[in-house]
Design a protein that fits this description.
- The chain has helices spanning 14-26, 37-46, 63-73, 88-96, 109-139, 150-162, 179-188, 207-215, 232-235, 251-263, 289-295, 300-306, 323-337, 347-355, 361-375, 388-395, 405-423, 428-434, 439-448; strands at residues 6-10, 30-34, 51-55, 78-83, 101-104, 169-172, 197-201, 240-244, 265-266, 275-276, 280-285, 309-312, 344-345, 380-381.
- It is α/β, with parallel strands linked by helices.
- It folds into four domains: 6-136, Response regulator (Rossmann fold), CATH 3.40.50.2300; 145-314, Rossmann fold, CATH 3.40.50.300; 316-397, Helicase, Ruva Protein, domain 3 (Orthogonal Bundle); 399-453, Arc Repressor Mutant, subunit A (Orthogonal Bundle), CATH 1.10.10.60.
- A five-stranded parallel β-sheet has the order 2-1-3-4-5, with helices on both faces. Strands 7-8-11-6-12 form a five-stranded parallel β-sheet. It has a two-stranded antiparallel ribbon with strand order 9-10.
- α13 (323-337) packs across α15 and α18 packs across α19.
- The longest helix is centred in the first third of the chain and has 31 residues, at 109-139.
- Residues 145-374 form the Sigma-54 factor interaction domain.
- Keywords: ATP-binding, Nucleotide-binding, Phosphoprotein, Transcription, Transcription regulation.
């Protein structure tokens, strides 16, 4: 059911006020009326209204004073002024103070309805925008980045210092470690949090399009440029731009990027007119840029310009303590998304996850958890529910309590035979060849292991 807009109507003319209250109630608004500024201030202290409609002249105050008070206490509340003096000065002053609109006496009901409908929609969009921005800030709070290990605590401590500055940051880390998540956390916890965050994946954009994507272009700059278009740097003005995979940027664009960083201005493709910008630059790479500088594939001066504050995100294999909390986090996320009870994970399955080297880092772990939640029927994830390359890790672990070596080797043999048979669609001769066995040896092994079926 659609929620009704809450409106406060302030008018000292009783008959006019009561008629308007009845009219707006019939239009499905939730409306309260009062006849003085004092009464209005008391109501505004107790209630939060979506829209305030106030007469400009009241016995004990002015509509402008009410407007100022409303905007001070509740910036999202829209204010419409009613005035008998339709002067341009009154309208200009009201708009400067933050009024949404004004209407003159005698009131035109149809005009008021139109103004109210526009104001309700404006308030809805503003409220929704604030809500979405809050969701983004909440999502990228440091507390929501999972990492209890000493390695990640070092990262958090440095991030807390970084957000107090406006310096350029270069984030190093293997693919899948969460470099973009860290960049967003820096932005949404810093002074630019209410401004744009624009991410550009330099390696994913064709080289011939990257320049116009970053810096924009003017009409006629090239075939198909039918109108001016702003680039990512202009779109990020007053906010943050993330240049991901910066090491893949071609040399001629590195030169232009260096000039942008030095001059804080861009030139659109096909134009010679510089456009001033105020953008925080965060770069990210999974390459060793110092080696690229030595090879001559990355400009040394650009490297030092980008690397004002280096931030290294450790790979998952170097922070094993974070695997369990990450698994719990992803289990909760995907069980909620797939509308199923919260799943748990068996001890030996968790041990296998901690023994695996995770070449794809956190991204790979998230994918494994999502796939397992989607494909596992029971509410407990066992070793058999994990991908074979991971479940095999548990078989190689020697604990303090010792290990049954014969049983473990038997299980490994079974797994390898099953995998070979799967790859060869059950053709034993081909499976035997893959295992460097002859067919009769494989058949005998399968019989001994109880695998004839």
């Amino acid at each position: 059911m659609k929620e009704r807009s809450k409106i406060l109507l302030i008018d000292d003319e009783t008959a006019s006020r009561e008629a308007l209250v009845l009219l707006l109630k019939s239009s499905d608004y939730q409306i309260t009326g009062c006849g003085s500024g004092q009464e209005a201030f008391q109501l505004l202290q107790r209630e939060r209204y979506d829209i305030v409609i106030t007469d400009l002249l009241l016995p004990d105050t002015s509509g402008i004073d009410i407007l100022k008070k409303v905007k001070e206490d509740s910036p999202l509340t829209e204010v419409i002024l009613i005035t008998g003096y339709a002067s341009a000065e009154t309208a200009v002053q009201a708009m400067k103070e933050g009024a949404c609109d004004y209407i003159t006496k005698p009131l035109n009901i149809d005009e008021l309805r139109i103004i109210l409908a526009k104001t309700v929609e404006k308030h809805r969009l503003l409220t929704e925008n604030v809500y979405l921005k809050k969701q983004l800030r909440d999502k990228y709070e440091f507390a929501n980045i999972v990492g209890n290990s000493p390695a990640m605590q070092k990262v958090f401590n440095l991030m807390k210092r970084i957000i107090k500055t406006d310096s350029t940051v270069l984030i190093f880390g293997e693919s899948g470690t969460g470099k973009e998540v860290v960049a967003k956390a820096i932005h949404f916890n810093g002074s630019r949090k209410d401004k744009p965050f624009i991410a550009v994946h330099c390696g994913a954009i064709p080289e011939n399009l990257l320049e116009s994507e970053l810096f924009g272009y003017v009409r006629g700059a090239f075939t198909g440029a039918n109108k001016d278009k702003i680039g990512k740097f202009e779109a990020a003005n007053h906010g943050t731009i993330l240049l991901d995979e910066i090491g893949t940027m071609p040399m001629h664009l590195q030169t232009k990027l260096l000039r942008v960083l030095q001059e804080q201005e861009v030139e659109r493709v096909g134009s010679t007119r510089p456009i001033k910008i105020d953008v925080r630059v965060i770069s990210a790479t999974n390459q060793n840029l110092e080696e690229e500088v030595q090879k001559g594939t990355f400009r040394e001066d650009l490297y030092y310009r980008l690397n004002v504050i280096p931030l290294h995100i450790p790979p998952l294999r170097e922070r094993i303590e974070d695997i369990l909390p990450l698994v719990r986090f992803f289990l909760e996320k995907y069980c909620r998304e797939m509308k199923r009870p919260l799943m748990t994970i068996a001890k030996n399955a968790m041990e296998a996850l901690e023994l695996y080297s995770w070449p794809g880092n956190v991204r790979e772990l998230e994918n494994v958890v999502e796939r397992t939640v989607a494909l596992t029927e029971e509410n407990v994830i066992t070793l058999n529910d994990l991908p074979r390359k991971i479940s095999e890790m548990a078989l190689t672990k020697v604990s303090e309590q010792g290990v049954d070596l014969v049983k473990t080797i038997t299980e490994i043999e079974k797994m390898m035979i099953l995998e070979a048979l799967s790859l060869t669609n059950g053709v034993k001769a081909k499976a035997a060849a893959m295992l460097n066995l002859n067919r009769t040896t494989l058949v005998e092994k399968m019989r001994r292991l109880g695998m004839e079926r």
